Write a sequence for this structure.
C-alpha cells in the first residue's frame, strides 16, 4: 500500500510544481518578446541611420506643404551616389555652424535617448535639424525681388506655387551668389520661417553646406489622411551664373 501510494504521488505534479512551470513559460515568453522588440528597434535604427528616417515637423515654417505634427520620411540615399540637392528639393539638414552655433554638451545618456526617439520619429527633432526648400545651389545668383515681386535665379523669375497663401516671396530684399558646395534655403511659409535670409550677416551668410544635408523629404508618412509623396516643385531658374 505504501509503495503504491508513493508511486501515485510521483506520477502526478503538485499544484506548486504546475504553477512554477507556468511562471517559467510566461517568463520565457516575456524574454522572447523583449528580444524581438530589441531586435526590431535596432533594425529600425539602422534603417533610419542609413536609408529612410522619420522626421517630425515641429513648426509652421513649411506650410502648406508640411504641417505641424506631420511625420515625413527622409530619403537618406537621395544624395549618396553622386547626386546633389536641386532647386525645389525639400531637404532636412544639420544647421550646426550655419543656422545655429555649436550646441553646449548636454547629458550624454539623455542626448542618446532623445536621438534614438527622434530617429524613430517619436520625438521632436534636434534643435540643430531643419527642414527647408532649396532655392539656390552653388553658383546661382539669387535676387529678391524683381518688378513683379518674384524671386529671380540667374535672371529668371521663379514660379513658387508652394508658397503659403497670402505670403510674398520675401519681405526682406537680398541679392546673393551662392558659393559652390552650399545651398540657399527658404521655408514655404515665408512670414513664419527663419531661414537663409535671417543669417545673411552671420558667418556663412545663411548658406548651408551640402555635406550637412541629411536627406531629401520625399514622403509624408503620418497622419494617414496626408499620406503620400511630396509634389514635385516646378523647374526654377536658368543655368548657373
Amino acid at each position: 500500500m505504501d509503495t503504491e501510494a508513493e508511486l501515485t504521488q510521483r506520477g502526478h505534479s503538485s499544484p506548486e510544481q504546475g504553477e512554477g512551470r507556468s511562471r517559467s513559460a510566461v517568463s520565457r515568453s516575456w524574454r522572447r518578446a523583449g528580444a524581438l522588440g530589441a531586435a526590431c528597434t535596432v533594425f529600425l535604427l539602422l534603417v533610419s541611420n542609413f536609408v529612410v528616417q522619420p522626421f517630425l515637423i515641429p513648426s509652421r515654417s513649411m506650410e502648406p506643404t508640411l504641417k505641424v505634427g506631420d511625420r515625413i520620411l527622409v530619403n537618406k540615399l537621395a544624395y549618396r551616389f553622386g547626386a546633389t540637392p536641386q532647386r525645389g528639393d525639400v531637404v532636412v539638414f544639420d544647421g550646426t555652424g550655419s543656422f545655429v552655433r555649436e550646441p553646449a554638451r548636454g547629458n550624454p545618456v539623455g542626448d542618446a535617448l532623445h536621438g534614438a526617439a527622434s530617429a524613430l520619429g517619436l520625438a521632436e527633432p534636434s534643435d540643430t535639424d531643419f527642414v527647408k526648400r532649396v532655392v539656390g545651389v552653388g553658383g546661382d545668383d539669387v535676387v529678391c525681388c524683381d518688378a513683379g515681386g518674384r524671386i529671380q535665379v540667374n535672371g529668371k523669375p521663379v514660379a513658387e506655387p508652394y508658397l503659403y497663401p497670402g505670403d510674398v516671396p520675401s519681405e526682406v530684399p537680398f541679392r546673393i551668389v551662392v558659393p559652390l558646395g552650399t545651398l540657399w534655403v527658404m521655408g514655404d511659409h515665408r512670414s513664419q520661417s527663419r531661414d537663409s535670409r535671417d543669417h545673411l550677416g552671420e558667418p556663412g551668410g545663411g548658406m548651408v553646406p551640402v555635406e550637412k544635408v541629411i536627406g531629401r523629404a520625399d514622403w509624408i508618412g503620418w497622419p494617414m489622411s496626408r499620406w503620400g509623396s511630396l509634389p514635385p516643385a516646378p523647374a526654377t531658374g536658368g543655368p548657373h551664373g
Observations:
- The CA atoms of residues 4 and 240 lie 99 Å apart.
- Residues 43-48 have pLDDT under 50 and may be disordered.
- The chain has two domains: 2-46, 52-229.
- The chain is about 25% helix and 25% strand.
